[in-house]
């Protein structure tokens, strides 16, 4: 796999409202393990859509891993207006998504729901697979893209589930 799309729950979906929440440490550890495995097997690109929460923490892990591995990071936002109404702290996070190797906007501004379908199609056509923090039992709007991933032939979707995070938490507590 050369190009990996990373997406998952938002901080709000996960009930994480403090950047010092221990859950973030656990999520980052899961991300680091998975990303290192992909990088050891020749991953060249990591793609983000600019969502806060799982994607933002994955961006932080990816930027750290760039110090050790040769790969590029892209942010492909749905709209040029993405995040324009966010507060100052979240604007700073948005800027981190823009401070990567490649930045692209699918559309100038929102016009219709069909744009999201086309955007998801574009993301899947331009990635070999995905790493997603998602659990079908806790459905959010993420199901639109994860359903499409599952229906796309020759597309590898790797899920990080809550059980995976619990295992990491248990391992950390046993140290």
From TrEMBL:
Gene3D superfamilies: 3.40.50.450. It comes from the Bacteria. SUPFAM superfamilies: MCP/YpsA-like (SSF102405). It holds the Pfam family YpsA. InterPro entries: YspA (IPR010697). Belongs to the UPF0398 family. This is UPF0398 protein C426_0817. The lineage of its organism: Bacteria, Bacillati, Bacillota, Bacilli, Lactobacillales.
């Amino acid at each position: 796999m050369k190009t990996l799309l990373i997406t998952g729950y938002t901080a709000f979906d996960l009930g994480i409202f403090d950047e010092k929440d221990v859950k973030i440490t656990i999520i980052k550890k899961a991300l680091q393990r998975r990303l290192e495995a992909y990088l050891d097997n020749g991953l060249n690109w990591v793609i983000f859509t600019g969502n806060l929460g799982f994607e933002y923490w994955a961006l932080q892990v990816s930027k750290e891993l760039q110090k050790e591995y040769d790969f590029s990071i892209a942010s492909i936002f749905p709209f040029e207006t993405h995040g324009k109404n966010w507060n100052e702290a979240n604007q700073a996070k948005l800027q981190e998504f823009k401070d990567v190797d490649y930045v692209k906007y699918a559309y100038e501004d929102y016009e219709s729901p069909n744009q999201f379908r086309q955007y998801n199609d574009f993301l899947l056509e331009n990635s070999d697979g995905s790493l997603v923090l998602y659990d079908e039992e806790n459905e959010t709007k993420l199901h639109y893209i994860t359903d499409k991933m599952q229906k796309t032939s020759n597309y590898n979707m790797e899920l990080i589930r809550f059980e995976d995070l619990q295992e990491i938490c248990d391992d950390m507590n046993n140290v």
